[in-house]
Amino acid sequence: MARDEKGKRAFDLLMASVGLVLSAPLWAVFALAIKLEDGGPVFYRQPRVGRGGREFVTLKFRTMSPEAERESGPTYATPHDPRITRVGRLLRATALDELPQLLQIMAGEMSFVGPRPERPEFVRRYKGELPSYEKRLQVAPGLTGLAQLYGHYNSSPRAKLRLDLLYVERRSLWLDVKLILLSFGVTFRGGWQIRGKKL
Fold first, then answer.
1. To the nearest 10°, the Cα dihedral for 185, 191, 193, 194?
2. How much is the pLDDT for 81?
3. Residue 25 burial (10 A CB sphere; 0-12, 13-18, 19+)
4. Which of 34, 59, 65, 69 is most buried, taking the most CB atoms under 10 A from its CB?
5. In Å, what is the CA distance from 98 to each residue of 27, 64, 124, 172, 180?
6. Cβ 117 vs Cβ 48: under 8 Å
7. Chunked mean pLDDT (size 10), the chain, 199 residues
8. What value, to the nearest 5°, has the Cα angle with vertex 149 and ends 144 and 150?
């Protein structure tokens, strides 16, 4: 493992450990709120594709109705999506539904910064449509990244890929710190559900 990769991993472990300790009270609050709203499961598990094309199961606080994709199959959320619960809208706006993914960071399946992990169905599609798509799988997927901050929700897969590949090419610990600080700002503003650019 290169020195930069070791530094990134150590930084991820430190940040994830602190994050898990500080957010522990919120886990209980969110779990209770989700359970009280509709009685469904607290967490949502979903297969995603990580570094090197390896699949892993990601964990999030559930923000949609329990049967959200029974009829539609795998689809992206839309503006004012009726499948999203009231608690879910708050969690999505602040990205606090992603808190359980700190466990994936501890396990080494994810990083704080990197391309967002996609579902296997979408990865197979984009590999066929976008010749450079494999390159984004050279690094660990992240909670946040250039595409999340500088793109927007309705950006084309090709536009998001350009930002992901820019990160892969220029990644560094200092860039990670900058993107994490910018992401905290979006969280405090409750701006993650803005469909345009966040910054």
1. -120
2. 75
3. exposed
4. 34
5. 11, 14, 24, 23, 14
6. yes
7. 79 96 96 94 95 96 80 60 88 94 96 96 93 94 94 84 95 94 92 71
8. 140
Q: Is the pTM of this model over 0.70?
A: yes
E strand or H helix at 144, and its extent? strand 142-144
3-state secondary structure 22-62: HHHHHHHHHHHHHHHHHCCCCEEEEEEECHHHCEEEEEEEC
Write phi, then psi, for 142 (nearest 5 degrees): -130, 170
Using the structure block, give the residue that is written with the tokens 């109705």.
Answer: 65
Q: With beta carbons less than 8 A apart as the criterion, state whether 175 and 113 touch.
A: yes
With H, G, I as helix, E, B as strand and everything else as coil, classify residue 113. Answer: strand
